[in-house]
Amino acid sequence: MKKTLLLAEMLLVIAGAGCGAPDTTAPEDTREAVTTTAANALTVQNCTPLSALTVVASGNDGNVPQNTLDDVLDTRWSSFGKGSWIDYDLGADRTLSGAAIAWHLGNTRANAFTLSVSSDGTNYTTVYSGTSSGTTTAAETYTFASRTARRLRITVNGSTLNDWASIAEARVCGSSSTGSTVVWRGDFETGDRSQWTSTQMVSADRLQVVPSPARQGSYALKATVIQGDDPINASGNRNELVKMTREAVGSEYFYKWSTMFASDFPSVKTWQLFAQWHHEGGSGSPPVELYVYGEEMRLNIGGDPGVIVWKAPLVRGQWQDFILHVKWSPDPSVGFVELYYKGQLVLPKRSIATQFPGMLNYLKVGLYRSDTVTAPGVVYHDGWTMARSLADVL
Predict the structure, then answer these.
(1) For position 392, what pLDDT does the model report?
(2) Which residues of the chain fall below pLDDT 50?
(3) Which domain holds residue 71?
(4) Which of 26, 30, 125, 278 has the most CB atoms around it within 10 Å of its CB?
(5) How many CB atoms lie within 10 A of CB 211?
């Protein structure tokens, strides 16, 4: 399996420092009368809202950018200074046509702002420039000619009252999906393992479909490995489900699932895989694998030794949500991986070879580990979904 492990720096999405000087009088609007009603929810008109996977901003005064997605008009994002911005990432290119914005205290001041779009988070194109009405706290929809982009940024250039940027709620508007792009579900809602192609297990009790704990729906998979479990007479110990996904070269998919490690999951300085896209017709480490090493979860690309493109502390006893976005190719200039963990983009798109030349991949989940591990290991899986769009795994 693994003889050496190369550490790669983990990539994180962080918000930059705030623009402009701080408000030395008070945080945004504590000196102004708040006119909204408690627990007001957002409504939009002339807008088909698209789901944003993450939101970041140039800065904040403690009123964080995530507040603009909580469907409550009494919370807000605030940042001081002309040019303050907030940026919504949809996770993949979509057809965008506008934004619905509910301005904090929007009935007392008009806000000057621009909307810009980007597919890479670096190069932005301004698609709208204008001013809010200054007459309402409800959402106002601002439209522009349809554009294909992944991100929308709202840049605020002050108001008729002050230089605070302050938004209660915002939604990206665009074209709704014309149909589901879900290719396959392995969420165990059949109550058995029939959604999967085959099993590699020493006995049925090692891969159990159980009613609890479940992350979603009514069932989840409980995978158990005991030292000596070797159902296919190969290296290591395992009990795994197999799905013959066989993604074509050049294809692009989103994979969503949740994993929970038992409270007594072993802590050992060796590999314990919980998901892998293995290559056909060959032995050795797969081109894409997620595993535990000691007290870390890791995503490794390229086999042994490969490149560790992401790692995070191991958490036991709690469901961990993943979305892996992959373009499959043996060409590192074509293939890429992108990872969302617990609803946050933790690995921006990384160009890398995701297949070995001449070999397609297939999915294996459960638990596969070094045969040197002595303690039993238990891991739970739920919600496995494979789709062609981010919207259909959200």
Answers:
(1) 85
(2) 1-25, 29-39
(3) 49-174
(4) 278
(5) 11
Residue 262 lies in a domain: yes
In single-letter form, the type of residue at position 111 comes to N
Q: Are residues 221 and 343 both part of a single domain? A: yes
Select from 161, 5, 147 the least CA-distant residue to 82: 161
| Phi (first) and psi of residue 143, to 5 degrees | -110, 155
Q: Are residues 139 and 161 in the same domain?
A: yes
Instruction: Quote the CA–CA distance of 335 and 350 in Å, as a whole number.
Output: 8
Do 219 and 362 fall within a single domain? yes
pLDDT at 211: 97
| Chain centroid to CA 382 | 16
- Residue 181: what pLDDT? 79
Report pLDDT for 114. Answer: 98
Cβ density class 327-338: b for 16+ within 10 Å, e for less: bbbeeeebbbbb
Distance CA 99, CA 48 (A): 9
CA–CA gap between residue 61 and residue 28 (Å, rounded) = 8
Are 54 and 348 within 8 A, CB to CB?
no
Backbone angles phi, psi at 264, to 5 degrees: -110, 25
* Sequence-distant (≥ 6) Cβ neighbours of residue 255 within 8 angstroms: 322, 323, 324, 325, 326, 363, 384, 385, 386, 393
281-285 long-range contacts (CB < 8 A, ≥24 apart) are 281/359, 282/356, 282/359, 283/234, 283/235, 285/1, 285/2
Residue 22: the pLDDT is 34
Give residues with Cβ within 8 angstroms of 267, minimum separation 6.
Answer: 294, 295, 314
Residues 280 and 357 reside in one and the same domain: yes
Residue for token pair 């957002």:
42
Q: Which residues pair with 86 in a beta bridge?
A: 57, 154
Match 């459960």 to its residue by tokens. 366
Residues 164 and 187 in one domain: no
Residue 178's pLDDT is: 52
